[in-house]
TrEMBL record:
Gene name linked to the record: rbfA
GO BP terms, alphabetized: maturation of SSU-rRNA
Role summary: One of several proteins that assist in the late maturation steps of the functional core of the 30S ribosomal subunit. Associates with free 30S ribosomal subunits (but not with 30S subunits that are part of 70S ribosomes or polysomes). Required for efficient processing of 16S rRNA. May interact with the 5'-terminal helix region of 16S rRNA.
Species: Candidatus Ordinivivax streblomastigis
Keyword Cell membrane annotated: no
SUPFAM superfamilies on file: Ribosome-binding factor A, RbfA
A Pfam family matched in the record: RBFA
UniProt keyword annotation of Cytoplasm present: yes
A cellular-component GO term for this protein: cytosol
Keywords attached to this entry: Cytoplasm, Ribosome biogenesis
Protein's name in the database: Ribosome-binding factor A
GO molecular function: ribosomal small subunit binding
Listed HAMAP family: RbfA (MF_00003)
C-alpha cells in the first residue's frame, strides 16, 4: 500500500514539475526541459527529480540555474499540490544524461 502511494505522489510531482518548467522555458527559445523521473523518500521529505535538458550543451548551466532557484520552484509546486500532500518535499535536481549515452552508443554502433 505504501509503495502505491509513493508512486502516485512521484507521478503527481513529475507532472507538475514538467508544467512548471514548460512555462519557464517558453521565454527561452530553443531550450526544452523535461522531467524524466522523480524519486521520493519514504517519509515524503525529499524528492529527487531527474531532468533531461535539450540542447545538452546548455544542460550544466541550466541545471545550476534551476538549483539556484530551487525555492521558487518548490513554492510553485506547493501552490499546485498543496491540497494533495501535507508537506511539500525538499527538491533535489539531477541531470539525466541517458539520452546522450544512448546517442553515443548509437554513434559507436554505426561506425
Amino acid at each position: 500500500m505504501e509503495g502505491t502511494r509513493l508512486q502516485k505522489i512521484e507521478r503527481l510531482i513529475q507532472k507538475d514539475l514538467s508544467e512548471i518548467f514548460l512555462l519557464q522555458t517558453k521565454q527561452m527559445p530553443g531550450v526544452m526541459v523535461s522531467v524524466t523521473r522523480v524519486r521520493i523518500s519514504p517519509d515524503l521529505s525529499v524528492a529527487k527529480a531527474y531532468l533531461s535538458i535539450f540542447p545538452s550543451e546548455k544542460g550544466k548551466e541550466l541545471l545550476d540555474n534551476i538549483n539556484q532557484n530551487k525555492k521558487s520552484v518548490r513554492y510553485e509546486l506547493g501552490l499546485r499540490i498543496g491540497k494533495q500532500v501535507r508537506r511539500i518535499p525538499e527538491l533535489a535536481f539531477f541531470l539525466d544524461d541517458s539520452v546522450d549515452y544512448l546517442e553515443n552508443i548509437d554513434h559507436l554502433l554505426n561506425q
